[in-house]
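Title: Prediction job returns without error message
Component: structure pipeline
Severity: low
Priority: P3
Assignee: unassigned

Description:
Job completed but the reporter wants confirmation the result is attached to the right record. Sequence as submitted:
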Amino acid sequence: MIRYVALILAAVLATGCSIFGDDEEPIDPPAELTDFEAAFRVSKEWEHRIGDGTEFLMLGLSPAVEGGRAYAGAHDGKVIAVDVESGRRVWAVDTKLELSAGPSVGEGLVIFGTSDGALVALDALEGTGRWTMSVSGEVLASPAIGNGMVITRTVDGRLRALDAADGSEYWNVEQPVPRLSLRGNSSPAIVGAAVVAGFDNGRIATYDLDDGDIRWENVIAPPSGKSELERLADIDAAITAVGQDVYAAAYNGRVASLAVESGQVLWSQEVASYEAPAADWTALYVTSRSGSVVALSRASGAILWSQEALHMRGVTAPAASNSSVVVGDYQGYIHWLNAVTGDFEARAQVDKAAIVGRPVAAGELVLFQTESGRLAAYRAKRPDAG
């Protein structure tokens, strides 16, 4: 929601218009939802209150699922673990920290970043504290976990590798941060023995997991334009990895597919985005910064379809769930789109508050977290599912 407000304000300032004291229509207002014939019903399977809400804070909090459990945290420090199928709460703890990103789950840990520049690791089975480690800046992107390591990005442009056992640092690298950038960071990805990360200067780079030595670096979206606003090129979307291909999206530029080994750009497409792409066997799904949901061919980058009806509705990153693509919006609505055509299939309202983070598919369920501090699971009741 805060990105939506900021972009509207930026557009107003850029055109020299006032947002106070006149009767002019707002620039680019959110699209009104229209009725459609639903292809199937959806039902709420369970819901939990995590903690206090996070309205306008622009945090990187969204649920994570592993081993049949869902994990989620609120800005006030409260964290819960829930059995995905039954909805039973397994454990709940209060870290007393201002959580700002996560969780990430792996190596038996549930890891969050905090607003005051720390990572906190909890035991995934019981919720007990394992370690806390200070880093150099606010954490707004979920860390990557794998091979006994935790990789985290901070707002000061640093990428750090920590020991998953105790949080001690192995290495850190840094990329310059432009004077003006979006609030948010890209979650890195561990691919084999490499770490792939995107930065606020429009660059994507791969580092050796063991020692942080750079393997390659590429520019997805070079800054262009006369004003600093026009030159925003942040890669704030989480890096998406499928096999030996990685996908990255830049706010003011492109979505690109790159080869992990060489950094070669396999294809690129002009879709500006700050949300993480989602992939299935044949397609890559992207939410543009204007709210369009776009399907691209994973093989060529060609646009397969574009759904424009959610324009400026603060649309979340997409999730691929069975034969659908699922997104949330700033009014708490969730939308199921047909993965082949992009047509609307179903809709439900989780909350009056915005959906934050990306939805998470877990088998037949899709999980959502809202700005009011709720975690909810919905099931699509497709005709062929009985």
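Comment from assignee: result matches the submitted record. The chain is about 5% helix and 45% strand.
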